[in-house]
Amino acid sequence: MxxxxxxRRADYRRYRDLMATRPELFHRPGDGVAILLxxxxxxxxxxxxxxxxxxxxxxxxxxxVGVLAEDAYILALRDAVRFPDGSLGTHNRVVYVNNAGGVAxxxxxxxxxxxxxxxxxxxxxxxxxxxxxxxxxxDGLEETVLREVAEExxxxxxxxxxxxxxxxxxxxxxxxxxxxxxxxxGVGEPQLSEGIFDIVQVTPARFVGMVAEGGVEDAHAINxxxxxxxxxxxx
Length: 235
Description:
- The protein has two domains: 94 residues, no CATH class; 130 residues, Nucleoside Triphosphate Pyrophosphohydrolase.
- 28% of the residues lie in helices and 31% in strands.
- The strands form two sheets. Strands 5, 6, 7, 8, 9, 10 and 11 form a seven-stranded mixed beta sheet that branches. Strands 1, 2, 3 and 4 form a four-stranded antiparallel beta sheet that branches.
- 26% of the residues are buried.
């Protein structure tokens, strides 16, 4: 974020609108970290964080509570909160607008793991990954698996085995993934429109070596692989 962006205050009016129209976004269990809804409490928390940020050379806007960004996919919020010890502060979070759920698929073709060489904008470089994607409104998990496999590998899967679920980055977002293993009948061409530049096939033994060497850094690929092993589905 540039200097001007760091000086831009969060949209508090839109935040109050969301409190009224989407109260579920602000509900928390009584024994957790509480989101403050009273305007006086919010102002008090902002002042605490503003003093702390000023000592770090940050502008007052960096402590403002409200909507930081909103589009068709995500809602980024900065909340005023009270911690269990009674202290005040702010927390940033990203809420996926339509559905926080997604799938990640460990594809196998003739005993080999199919990996995608994908350029990821957020980190500015390539990673070897497994197919993944969001569950669209009205779709089921397995339906999403079959669609993502077709779109990202050019292959077809007759079915999928559910491996488990994890939350992806609980310090920032509500995103979660269900993991699956799918046997492919074939592999197609890389989908450049998806940012996929190459398709790589490796044996399970080679995959383990690549993880140890740092050649595979995609947490979802690693999660799915070891979940499959725990279920006895991979050697």
